[in-house]
Fold:
Amino acid sequence: MNSTRKLIRHERLQHILHDNPFMTDEQLAKTLKVSVQTIRLDRVALGIPELRERTRDMAEGAQSKLRAIDKKDIVGELIDLELNKVGISTLKITPDMVLEKTGVARGHYMFAMADTLALAVVDAQTALTGVANVKYKVPVYAGANLVAKAEVTNRRDDKYFICVRIKNNNEEVFRAKFIVVSLDDERKQAE
Amino acid sequence: MNSTRKLIRHERLQHILHDNPFMTDEQLAKTLKVSVQTIRLDRVALGIPELRERTRDMAEGAQSKLRAIDKKDIVGELIDLELNKVGISTLKITPDMVLEKTGVARGHYMFAMADTLALAVVDAQTALTGVANVKYKVPVYAGANLVAKAEVTNRRDDKYFICVRIKNNNEEVFRAKFIVVSLDDERKQAE
DNA sequence: CAGATATTATGAGCTGGTACTAAAAGCAGG
DNA sequence: CCTGCTTTTAGTACCAGCTCATAATATCTG
Structure:
């Protein structure tokens, strides 16, 4: 068959674009030693959009990626928040969060979830975790939908005492107590 | 002065493009109710590249961003390890690990560093964190080179008591006590 | 050799611009 | 009011990097 060459070229084309998505048809034509028109036909056959569209797709993906990183301020998704009282967030455990050997979720994801929620609950410009008391009760596996609930149990001056419980299917899998220190000077003086 | 209008427009232009970088000059002209040429002049004056270039810049930035996320999985670098006795690891705090507001490193990076080191020290096929007791002593800022030292202080059956201290320039910034449970046998996790 | 498939060539048209020239509009001072 | 200045708008030529359509050539295959 003549078309084996074509198939090979298609493979190579996809490979090349995977490694370097910013190549024009002209550059591709040179590296694959065919005409520009052939490249265009190949792209159409493979459903590969033109350079500009590829670039735009990546840039748009970048935006959501950047937002995702921003949102990591709260590890998990903030569902409900009553400042200085309670906060609720959720987090889905994905396969990349678990230890390979055991399939059990790495502990610091739960810690991070609880820690960030605790900080979010505190109504202060800047807050820092001072002390934490953590207990893992039940191992969590990939696919679990965790729900964290943080409650401010006490407050003394600039210190907030916060209790966070994480549940998976109504079973408490994690519990932590945090002491969060507010660094909001104005607030301290105002009260 | 007539040029106040221009300055205001420049401000608005930058704002608009910050929120939505994917606008053509034509769209910008409509939203700002001026001609396309004016927009072009404004872009030149402000050093803002054309749409395609902006898009490409973002797409390129996206690639390095993705790599950065991959690397985050390694929480610290293991320097020394004596199984069931001590372990030492290092971690450099990069600007993306700090809270924007304060510039202070997010607490769970230290926690994750300590947690993974504690688990590494335990000579067991599979180990899980059961309980943690954490204290943040000094805020850490970007650029800090943290050194964590984990010591097994006690051992009872399948439970390891581990103390982890993290120092920055010989100053102790973080301390945690973990109870790690080995799952070598069929034992269930800590209670 | 005919016929199918693959490749190349050619040209018109599109988007979103740059670069340059020039004209019109807006305002200020003498 | 006219003169000079900045600002804004308009218009033209040109470019990259395509799409779409149409046609010619090359290559293989039975």
About this structure: The first strand of chain A starts at residue 77 and ends at 82. Residues 1-3, 5-6, 34-38, 41, 52 of chain A lie near DNA strand C (CB under 10 Å from a C1').
